[in-house]
Design brief:
Shape of chain A: globular
Number of helices of chain A: 6
Distance between the termini of chain B: 27 Å
Strand content of chain A: 25-35%
Bound molecules: adenosine-5'-diphosphate, magnesium ion
Strand content of chain B: 15-25%
Number of domains of chain B: 2
Distance between the termini of chain A: 26 Å
Structural class of chain A: alpha/beta
Largest interface: A-B, 31 and 22 residues
Radius of gyration of chain A: 18 Å
Largest sheet of chain B: 7 strands, mixed
Shape of chain B: elongated
Structural class of chain B: alpha+beta
Largest sheet of chain A: 7 strands, mixed
Helix content of chain A: 25-40%
CATH class of the domain at 2-92 and 164-228 in chain A: Alpha Beta
Oligomer: heterodimer
């Protein structure tokens, strides 16, 4: 079953001379356990597509399905989108967007707090996630005591907290150097394959494309048909085991 | 994990300092109420300690607390003859400023109806009530006189035989109790003195009688019934204790109440503005965090409760400061400050109300933050 499907999505910003067509008849589906890349030049509509699929904004036309359920149609919400975002979707962005005065652990626990989950179980779960991402010994550090790559991994832990069936990442490695960028992409691959999560990652970086099952390319708001990738990858040795 | 608390934790010192300042504002609100309550209690001390059920005053007046009243001295005997009257005493009082030990005192003298009334009902806390018909005085301890000390009033010495607490006139001056005969003696001496200092014919004549007659109704007799019997006394008006009480409060205290009420209102407004600004600024400072929470799908309720909790915490902390201040400092005020449980509860409710109203602007602001703010970088 498709974990996520966007169908015939249109989105236009502005009017008159300022009119920009950000999405034009975009249709895209992602399977559970699939890690998909969204590629394209700057301004091609990648972020618009991601925020539309992530239920952060409504399209002008078209529909969005989550786990086989139509939640947006014709630019209208059919469900409580906030509720879907907090339980069904994990977000990762270019910046980690951690709360500066909270520890790594507390930043992850925010996701539980939002879902009304408190106490020891939430804490245990958050610690496990940090461990899964190789940050067990950084749980009590504040963001300014972590490297960029570590901050981004905390953000990924936060996105995974509620075990959402869908993770959306918008240029999550833009602020990282080549090696770390590759580590993060392989992490998304591992998450998709080990947890059955559908993952969509926006990137410019052609060097990391081999980490993805599918690559979608966008240009001027139009999505080209997907390319399936052949060769599977192995997890590098320096990432901690699950 | 409480988001409101976690947000405060990293700016705890500033938050506590703000709560302290706000607490002092609340303390003033509390003090104003306590001062008013103290004024009310002070104002009615004399009426309540007199032990009288009825006040016979000059016809057409409301009695000595509202205006000048003089009744004939024989009224005392006439009143005593009425059925159901346990006792009737003359009442007079006036304020004077005698010299004592090189300083000038100010006290309001009250004449007691010797020999029946020796001051048993005024509540002597040290020493005793009057035992001799001449030359003894019971005073409020705040005057600073010791038992056994001698005070010269008019031309005669008066020995301090008893001290009381909280014995003040409606104006706040300490009270002194002498026999009614002594009071008249002092009064006429001072009146004669004043006349000597003025051109002839300019001074007031010495009063010709007491200011009122106090009547106590016999046990088991209805006050209303006895009051009715005085209807035939065409030269006086009769008032109950509670009538006199309300005359006192209307005259002295009512204006003060309105003034204090206005002042408290303004203080409450200022406190509200302070809380509102603080909470609003704290909300603006976490615009990114609120956007993040919204993006992650946080319920509106969570965000609203975070802001309201902070406002409440600020207000309740400030209330604690005000409460502590009231326990420590109010006793040092020159006039009585009476802060009872209702006053404390009232200011607490005010503090909570201020917090809730003051959160409105911040909540409105927070709800307007678009979740995608976080994506703008
Ligand atoms: N909020 C907005 N208002 C107006 N124009 C926008 C807005 N967001 C994006 N755009 C425009 O839509 C187009 C697609 O933007 P975006 O989806 O951010 O592309 P990408 O992420 O591929 O760089 C761009 O031309 C951009 O300027
Ligand atoms: Mg973009």
């Amino acid at each position: 079953m498709l974990a996520l499907r966007g169908e015939r999505l249109d989105k236009t910003y502005g009017a008159g001379d300022n009119r920009v067509v950000a999405l034009s008849d975009v249709t895209l589906g992602v399977e559970a356990g699939e890690v998909a890349a969204l590629l394209g030049p700057s301004g091609s509509g990648k972020s618009t597509l991601l925020t539309t699929l992530g239920l952060l904004q409504l399209p002008d036309r078209g529909s969005v399905w989550l786990a086989g359920r139509e939640v947006v149609v014709g630019g209208r919400a059919l469900a409580d989108l906030s509720a879907l975002r907090r339980s069904q979707i994990g977000f990762v962005f270019q910046k980690a967007n951690l709360v500066p005065f909270l520890s790594a652990l507390e930043n992850v626990m925010v996701a539980f707090e939002i879902n009304g989950q408190r106490g020891r179980v939430a804490r245990r779960h958050a610690l496990d996630l940090l461990g899964y991402l190789g940050l067990a010994d950084r749980a009590d550090h504040r963001p300014d005591e972590l490297s960029g790559g570590q901050q981004q991994r905390v953000a990924i832990a936060r996105a995974l907290a509620m075990s959402p069936p869908l993770v959306l990442a918008d240029e999550p490695t833009a602020a990282l150097d080549g090696a770390r960028s590759r580590d993060v992409m392989l992490l998304f691959r591992r998450i998709a394959h080990e947890r059955g999560t559908a993952v969509v990652v926006v990137t410019h970086d052609h060097r990391v494309l081999d980490a993805f099952d599918t690559v979608h390319e966008m240009e001027d708001g139009v999505l080209a048909p997907p390319r399936a990738q052949g060769r599977p990858l192995t997890t590098p040795a320096h990432l901690p085991p699950p | 994990m409480n988001l409101a608390y976690l947000d405060l934790r990293h700016q705890l010192r500033r938050f506590v300092a703000t709560a302290f300042g706000l607490g002092l504002l609340f303390a003033i609100v509390l003090a104003m109420g306590g001062i008013y309550r103290g004024m009310v209690e002070d104002a009615v001390v004399l009426v309540e300690r007199s032990g009288a059920d009825l006040w016979l005053v000059q016809r057409g007046t409301r009695g000595p607390f509202a205006e000048r009243s003089t009744v004939p001295a024989v009224l005392e005997d006439r009143a005593r003859a009425v059925a159901g009257v346990a006792w009737a005493h003359p009442f007079s009082s006036f304020t004077l400023e005698p010299e004592h030990a090189g300083r000038s005192l100010r006290l309001t003298l009250v004449g007691l109806g010797w020999p029946d009334d020796r001051g048993a009902s005024i509540g002597v806390t040290r020493g005793r009530a009057l035992e001799r018909s001449r030359g003894e005085i019971v005073v409020d301890a705040s005057l600073g006189l010791a038992l056994g000390e001698t005070l010269t009033l008019g031309d005669d010495p008066y020995r301090v035989v008893g001290l009381g607490a909280g014995l003040v006139a409606s104006g706040g001056d300490p009270l002194g109790f002498v026999t009614h005969a002594d009071l008249e003696r002092i009064q006429s001496y001072l009146a004669a003195d004043a006349r000597r200092a003025l051109p002839p014919g300019d001074g007031d004549a010495a009063p010709s009688g007491p200011q009122a007659i106090l009547v106590r109704v016999a046990p088991g007799t209805s006050v209303a019934a006895v009051r009715g019997r005085f209807a035939s006394f065409t030269d006086v008006d009769v008032y109950s204790q509670s009538d006199e009480r309300s005359f006192l409060l209307e005259g002295v205290v009512d204006k003060a109440r309105r003034q204090i009420g206005l002042f408290r209102g303004l203080l409450a407004l200022v406190s509200g503005i302070v809380v509102s600004l603080v909470v609003f600024n704290m909300t603006v400072a976490k615009t990114r965090e609120i956007a993040l929470l919204k993006l992650m799908g946080a319920r509106t309720r969570l965000i609203v409760s975070m802001i309201v909790q902070q406002a409440l915490l600020l207000s309740v902390l400030a209330y604690g400061v005000a409460f502590a201040a009231s326990q420590v400092a109010f006793g040092l005020f020159p006039r009585r400050v009476v802060v009872g449980p209702e006053e404390l509860a009232g200011v607490f409710v005010l503090a909570v109300g201020i917090a809730l109203v003051a959160s409105l602007a911040a909540v409105r602001r927070a709800l307007q933050i678009p979740p995608t703010t976080i994506l703008a970088g």
